[in-house]
Amino acid sequence: MNPALLAMLAVVLAGGATALQAPTNARLAEAVASPVNAAFISFAVGTVALGMLALMLQTRPDMAATRSLPWWVWVGGLYGAVFVVAAAWAVPRLGVAVTITLMVAGQLLISLILDHFGAMGVPKQPMNVMRVAGILMVIGGVVLVRRG
């Protein structure tokens, strides 16, 4: 299978998992009385699953290589925590579609900026009218989903 096609399929499936994650954690947040508690449980389960997968795949980190990394590579889990808490809190208030659409809009806005400046080591892809128009269309989609 074409590697780019495989990557696109994986990302679409991950996006679907994100849509499932939001109501799952919202329901968990109701049961445990807090989106923070729900996120903690969600991350604990994810940590156990990743640990088991690492053992099965026999992966080992190159600890020497990690010493030269910039500080910001260590905070990726914080972004995930913000995402999970925000989704668990927002879904009961906004619904799944509006929550996920707004999250995608936020992802696109930040990704456009990262691409434009080549920030965080990503290849530079200058902002242009077509890319901005695409993001404006997604924001328009947020409005349509919210009013629907």
List the helices and strands and how they pair.
Layout: H1 3-32, H2 35-57, H3 63-66, H4 76-94, H5 96-117, H6 129-147
End-to-end gap:
39 Å
Gyration radius, to the nearest Å? 18 Å
Q: List SSEs in N-to-C order.
A: HHHHHH
Number of helices: 6
Structural class: mainly alpha
Q: Give the rounded overall mean pLDDT.
A: 92
How many strand elements? 0
Large-scale geometry: globular
User: In percent, how much strand structure appears in the residues?
Assistant: under 5%
Query: Mind summarizing the main beta sheet?
Result: none
Fraction in helix: over 70%
Uncertain runs: none
Provide structural commentary.
There is one protein chain. This protein has 148 residues and is mainly α. It has 6 helices and no strands. The longest helix is centred in the N-terminal third of the chain and has 30 residues, at 3-32. The relative contact order is 0.10.
Comma- or semicolon-separated keywords:
single chain; 148 residues; mainly alpha
Can you summarize this structure?
The protein has 148 residues and is an all-alpha fold.
